[in-house]
Amino acid sequence: MEFPFIERNDKEVYKALVGEDIRERDGLELIPSENYVSQAVKEALASSLTNKYAEGYPGKRYYGGQEFTDAVETLAIERAKKLFGASYANVQPLSGANANIAMYFALLEPGDTVLAMNLSHGGHLTHGHPVTYLTKIFNFVHYGMKDVETGEIDYDEMRRVAKEKKPKIILAGFSAYPRELNYAKFVEIAREVGATAVMDIAHIAGLIAGGAVKNPFDYGFDILTTTTHKTLRGPRGGMILIREDSTLAEKIDKAVFPGLQGGPHMNNIAAKAVAFGEALQPSFKKYALQVIENAQAMAEVFSTNGARMITGGTSNHLILLDVFTSFGISGGEAESLLDSVGITLNKNVIADDTRKPMDPSGIRFGTPALTTRGFTSIDAKRVAEIMISVLTKQDSTVLAGVTDEVRTLAMQYPIPKSFV
To answer: What is the pTM of this model?
Structure first.
């Protein structure tokens, strides 16, 4: 991307922007929460809508001059509803965390209980990790896997805890769990205890939109919260979807604005509308299926080579690899080694990890960004083989040769500017 005005006016920022473009072009992005957006999404983000305040909602703004803000937000809402089979959508949350926080504020009073996935078993910080301020307001209790080798959730324990603690929300969803959840079980337990069934689909939103995995709404979930980037391939932001309850929708709207946020970022909402339009195209279904095929191809290579994957493999876009057991190095060391050859992923805790969170036993990686570039399952297998070579040999001579191969492989699949 060219930055003629920044190049002329701010050399330091220009250098950083160009550097990032080169890093993304020459390397392989495997962080499962990252992806590439189209040039159309970038144009929306850089549009004059960045100038406009638009507190409120379409047709109910607090400032004048809202003809075009109303148009793009309405487009984003209608496209989101169509993508996910929702009756209501709020596209204003600035992030996935904001979407979750607004959802809590809409449904809970201070001291109320939420039952969510344990972070070390794949959950997210906003699902009640003690480091967050949310835990000072609400009471979080957790469920986890019964069998780490298969990923089976302990639904009997979940039911027991739900009956004992009487949560107002039962929250499904994850940031590092490679399998599909039994949505019917979640809803069944939620109904038994009178809880609202909520699913944080941030990681798999694009896979749901593309029909590659199940839609929690089809099993009776009341609310879905999500990011709009990751597998959905849109701008960085959040969204809340409601299956059919207008009362819930009103509570969510009030919690987002004025409860949590001020003016929405209208350039970002325009970019969401563009991305949702792209996701409605038939090609997006092929993309979503290929993401999973590529992830499973990588998992096959690691399995063949005897590496330990949490849950034994993957049913979605990500893999959680125990590098401490498999290769005798920490997650932090593995992240640095792979980063040095142009493969970007992140260190990650694994279930019942004996190491500290900042240098855990695992790494987390996935295929959304590689698939956007056009990688096939054969290419994905080669990436996995390269990773094993680096993690096994950890030799400077090997690393130099790998760096060249990574760059050559990246050059074969330029980052596309358009998806339609």
So the answer is: 0.96
